[in-house]
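A student in our group prepared the protein record below, which I am reviewing. I have pasted the whole thing underneath without changing anything:
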Amino acid sequence: MPRYVALLRGVSPMNCKMPELQRSLEAAGFTNVKTLLSSGNVAFDTPRAASAATLRKRLEAAMQAGMGRSFETHVRSSQHLQQLIEADPFTAFKLRAGSKRVVTFLREPLKASPIALPRTHGEACIWGLDGAEVFCSYVPEAKGPVFMQLLEKTFGKDITTRTWDTVARCAKA
């Protein structure tokens, strides 16, 4: 059975209970459903391979039916995430000391970056783009996650971002 990971935008423990999310997806026919952390990461199996767009629609409909609301959903195969972790694109970049690595997921792949890369803003840097993934690093600041402003200004709000460690956990789920 193919395994996938859904990365939901805007999920927190205050607006989505993971057991409720899991039950909603199971009721829609997804199997081996496993939620990871409390920030909207869900691994699941399907009887056969499907496109990300098809799975996204099914997942969002399942959330709406089971929870009365849905979250913007980005889908990747577990295999794709495992390959991403193994390739570790961050090794090609010179990160500042104390940097945190994040991956931003786009709904659709881009053939080219809308900006020249690398692009910095304060303590944040967008290093690269590979299809539908953007690789960014930041040094934590007192102002909060300014790197999100850079990402949203560049790629819009139809994105979701995860730490490198979270991507690794999702790949193994």
Notes: The CA atoms of residues 82 and 171 lie 5 Å apart.
